Amino acid sequence: MSKRVSPTVIGAFVVGALVLATVAVGVLGSGRFFRKVYPAVLFFEGDVNGLRVGAPVKFKGIQLGAVTSILLKLGNDAGLDSKAPLLIPVVIGLDQANIVAGGSTVRPDRETISELVKRGMRGQLRTESFVTGVLYVELQMQPDTPAEFRAGPDVPYPEIPTIPTALEEVQAKAGAFMAKLDSLDIDGLVNSFKAAAESFNRLASSPGLQATLDGLPTTVKKIDSAADQLHQTLVSVEGVTDALKADTVPRANEALVAARDALQSVQAVVQPGSPLLYQLGRTLDQLAQAAASVNRLAVELERNPAMLVRGKPVKEGER
Asked: For the chain, what is the domain count?
């Protein structure tokens, strides 16, 4: 007599076979066994709430891979008592098929990632949807930002440095502002304002200021009177100026006419070819000849002083 098979065992076997077939179809249909995925790691200091395994990794809006694991790093090898920040290591997988589909043939291996990091590649958390709060990893080129590496020698993946989100930057600046505000001497500033207010009250209530204010209308009247006198003086000065102008301008014109005539006379005298200039030239020539004769006489006397007594010697041909 054969043993009867339990229907429960048969049902479980069938269900298990269906599950295995479904998983096999999904895995083989997705092509994961035929894809090359290159891992990399990013260390985030801020809150990663909203980031899930399978979240996309994008570069300028193009999905290059997905998040494969989200870990937790408490301190470092020195233990929890160290001052090392609490970091969240996020491992991503860069899919070669997605990169090829985008039109690139570069493999995102360790050497390529290291070169891109040197050129300024950084990782940052971005919000996929403000409604759901889902995050994704954005890779971008930020060469002006410092590259801070957090991975130790035991990390087998290439590291991509991270930069804080816009909200984290605002929070950091707000924290720095509050720290500076805490360092200010608020009590001293308040006391200074109080002292200034008390000094102003004493000045406002002083009898001297009140007397000055009471005498201000009289002072204003005196100023108005002085202004009127000054206006009258200016009017008088303008009258004197007009009188001087009426008497002086004609005389100045006469002097200018006389000076012009004198210049014309001088110009006629010194003009080339004028008789006076010609006579002056002849007189200068005669003076030059006379000076030459006197010079020759002086030379002869120096040679023969007896010439003053005997006269000039006469040569035989001249007798």
From this structure: 3
